[in-house]
Amino acid sequence: MRSTTPRRGRMTGALLVLAVAALGLSGCGGDSGYETQEPQPSAPIMSQETVNDLCGILDAQKGTWKAIGPPVARVAFDGAMRLWTIRDGVASAAISYDRHIVDTVTEDTCPEVRTATLDVLELPDLKTAIAGL
Q: What's phi and psi for 34, nearest 5 deg?
């Protein structure tokens, strides 16, 4: 009958070597030079031309929206916003990132148009109006 001691000793030695190698490799990650945090997304920046287009759309449509009344005007507003974001991918991305961006840029660029649009839609802010986008 053969003894299994030498074989068991070799297997134990091999397992010990693998365990030490695994422990050694696991400690190397911190100094690799690679980022350990996932990159954070940044807000897309709408150009002034994009914002001017938005202000122009709102200004041109507010009379029509006033004539059709707030409930239907909100649907028409949503349609106008969808068309605007389809034509301008950066605007679409910016709204997806932060819906409040429309309020921010219109407050800065065309506050009177924004206020008139909100009065017609009977809403507190444009963020609420674009909730469906």
A: -90, 150
